[in-house]
Fold this sequence. Notes:
The protein is α+β, with helices and mostly antiparallel strands. It has one domain: Roll (Nuclear Transport Factor 2, Chain: A). The protein is about 35% helix and about 40% strand. The chain has helices spanning about 1-25, 50-60, 65-70, 90-105, and strands at about 70-80, 85-90, 110-120, 125-140, 140-155, 165-175. Strands 2-1-6-5-4-3 form a six-stranded mixed sheet. Helix 2 runs antiparallel to helix 3. The longest helix is centred in the N-terminal third of the chain and has 23 residues, at about 1-25. It is globular and about 45 Å long.
Amino acid sequence: MRSSTWIAGGISVIIITVALSLSSCTNPFAPALSIGAGGAVLGDQRTIEGLFQNFRYAYVFKDTLTYGRLLDRSFSFVYRNYDQGVDVTWGRDEDMLATQGLFSAAQQLDLVWNEVVQADGDSLLQNISRGFNLTITFNPSDVLRAQGRVNLRVARSSTAEPWKIVRWRDESNYF
């Protein structure tokens, strides 16, 4: 009788400990979800800042659904292959596969948007150059840091529609 009471008491302590641990667990490297007016977790993608907020959210939470909503159907990604001395371009499907691979391989991603270097355009088409810092943690001993700029062309068909990335030219420096 004594051992069954001890086992039941032990299980209760374990259940309470696990429940308390889960309810108080925070990751110091991942930002808390901020719920704004109207209960929205994501930014309003009808604004440029909302587009960048959603981009960061997609990376930090490795959310391919949110990431896919950022890209226009005609999306193209361009980066410089310095080893070969050429620009490499791929489309939306290839980018979604590459991003899904990155999200799966990384233990943690942290993206910080810096200053807007240049922005021009109108209410339906914008060209934006903006600085960023990206930290990719594959494991504690394999961390990649990139800093640089993105040159984005974003567009929408009307001011009631969300902004979508049409072209992303990446100008990263790895260190």
